[in-house]
Amino acid sequence: AQFDLAIRGGTIVTASDEFRADIGIRDGRIVSIADRIEGAAREIDATDLLALPGGIDSHVHISQPSGPDVVMADDFASATRAAAAGGNTTILPFALQIKGSSLRACVEAYKKLADGECYIDTSFHLIISDPTAVVLGQELPALVKDGYTSFKVFMTYDDLVLSDKQLLEVFEVARREQALVMVHCEGYDAIRHLTEKLEREGHIAPYFHGTSRPQIVEREATHRAISHAEIVGVPIMIVHVSGREAMEQVRWAQQRGLPVHAETCPQYITLTADDMKGLNMDMSGAKYVCSPPPRDKASQDAIWDGIIGGVFHTFSSDHCPFRYDDPKGKLTPNSRTSFCWVLNGIPGVETRLPIFFSEGVSKGRISLQKFVELTSTNHARIYGLYPRKGSIGVDFDADIVLWDPKLKKTIRQSDLHHGSDYTPWEGFEVTGWPVMTIARGQVVADNGKIVGTKGAGEVISRGRSSLI
Ligand code: URP
Ligand code: ZN
Ligand code: ZN
Ligand code: ZN
After folding, report:
1. Rounded distance between C-alpha atoms, residue 342 and residue 322, angstroms
2. Neighbours of ion ligand 2 (CB under 5 A)
3. I need a labelling partner for 180 at 20 to 30 A (CA). Which of 20, 33, 190, 198 fits?
4. Which of 60, 61, 152, 330 to mutate to test the pocket of ligand 1 (most atoms within 8 A of CB)?
C-alpha cells in the first residue's frame, strides 16, 4: 500500500488553522494531507473528531530520587502509558544532577532507565544542582552539543537551591552555548523564615505549606530571575507560574522587550489553597501539596488573563507523582510534625489536556488554535523539537491525537493509567476527551486502552530553542 495508515474525515487543527482533510502516514511520518486519501493498509475513521498535534508535555518528573525511602509513583513505562492515554505523544522529563556527581553520569543513568521502556518519545532536560567549574566549563557545554538544549535551575529546596552568583554563572553558560534555562522561582530564605515561624506557632498541617510560600515569595524570586537574565542577556523560561503576582512580573518584563517566557499548569486554573486543608484538617490535604502551591479564585482568573493575553507560552502538567497511601509516598514519617516533610508534587500528565480543553475551549475562553499552541506547538518550538514535532503537516512525525470535543467525562482515578493512587481531580467534570493517540504512526491509546508497545517510544535529542 502507498500508506501505512490513513486518518479519514477528521478536522485538522494546528496553531494557525482548522480544515477538513485526510492524513496519509508512511514510516511514522505524515506524507500527505489531502481531501481524500485512498490506498492505505489501515484506515481510521475520524468523522466528527478533531485531529490535533499530539500533546507535548515539557514539564514532567519521572523516577527522580526525592529523598531516602521515597519512590516516585511512575517509572518511564507507566508515565508514558498515562501520558499517551491523556493524548500526549512526547514528554520532556528531567535528568537530575546529584550533588557531587558528574552531570554526564547522571544523564546516562536516566537514559538507561528510559531506554526500551517508553510508549511515546521522551527527551530530557537537565537539572543543575551543583554548578562546579567542571560542570559549567566542560560537562554542560558538551551535553548541550549532544542535544540536551535546556536545563532547569532552582531558587529553593535544600538540595537544589543555587545562590544568585551560581544562577548568574549558569545563565552565562546558557548564553554562550545557546541553551534555554528554566527557572523555579521561589525564594529559599523567605520560605525558611516563614516555615520556622509557622512551625513555632504550631501551624504544621499540610495546609500551611501554602502559607509558607505565599505569592510574594514567588514574585520576588521571579523578579530576581528576570533581573539576572537581563544582566547576562539570556532568554529564560519561568516555569509553573501560579498566580497574579508572578504573572505580572513576567508581563512587565515582556513589555520591556525582554526575552522572558512563562509556563503555567492545570493546578493553577483549577485548584486553590483550600484544597490543602483536606477533611477537618486531616492529612489528605497533602494530596494537593505542590510548589508553587495552588492560590485562590482571583489568581486563577489572573492566570487566564495571562493565557489569553499571551503572557504564557506553554501549558504543562508539572507531573510529579507520589502515592498517598504508601509509606514510600507523599507522607514521610515526619510529615505529621510539619508540612515541610510532605513531598511536593502532584500527578497530572494524564489529565492536563482534558482539563485545559474543557476549561479553555469548551468554556469559550480560548480558541482551538490557542489550545494547540499552548499544549503542543510552542513546546516543540521552545525546546528544539520543531519542525519534527508540534504540528500536523507533511514531513512531521505522525504524532496525532483524535479528540472528541463533545464527549463528557468525569475524571476518576480508577480510569487512569498513572502510578499514583489518587488524582487531585477526582470527580472533575470535563467536556472534550482524547479518544485515540497515535505516536509516529502507531496507535498507542484507543479509548483509554493502551494498545501500543513498550519501547516504541524513543529517547530523542533536541535542537536549539526557537527563543535563542
Ligand atoms: O511541587 C512540585 N512542583 N514538585 C516538582 C518539582 C518542581 O519544582 O517542579
Ligand atoms: Zn519547579
Ligand atoms: Zn516540576
Ligand atoms: Zn521544618
Report:
1. 10
2. 184
3. 190
4. 61
Residue 100 per-residue DSSP state: T
Nearest to 288 by CA among 387, 396, 231, 210: 210
Q: Which three cell numbers stand for residue 369?
A: 488554535
Q: What share of the chain is helix, strand, coil (3-state, %, to 5)?
A: 35, 25, 45
Residue type for 139, please? Answer: E
Q: What is the mean pLDDT of each run of 10 residues along the chain (468 residues)?
A: 96 98 98 97 98 99 93 98 99 97 96 98 98 98 98 97 98 98 98 98 98 98 99 98 98 98 99 95 95 98 98 98 97 95 98 99 98 98 98 98 98 98 98 98 98 98 94
Going by their DSSP bridges, the two strands 22-26 and 3-8 should be labelled as: antiparallel
The DSSP call for residue 138 is I
* 251 CA distance to ligand 3 middle (Å): 22
Which cell goes with 440? 509516529
Q: The whole model's pTM is what? A: 0.98
Mutation pick for ligand 1 pocket among 314, 340, 344 (CB with most ligand atoms within 8 Å):
344
Contact between 228 and 262 under an 8 Å Cβ cutoff? The reply is no
In short, whether 320's Cβ falls inside 6 Å of ligand 1 is yes
Report the DSSP beta bridge partners of residue 459. 122
Closest CA to 92 of 429, 285, 319: 319
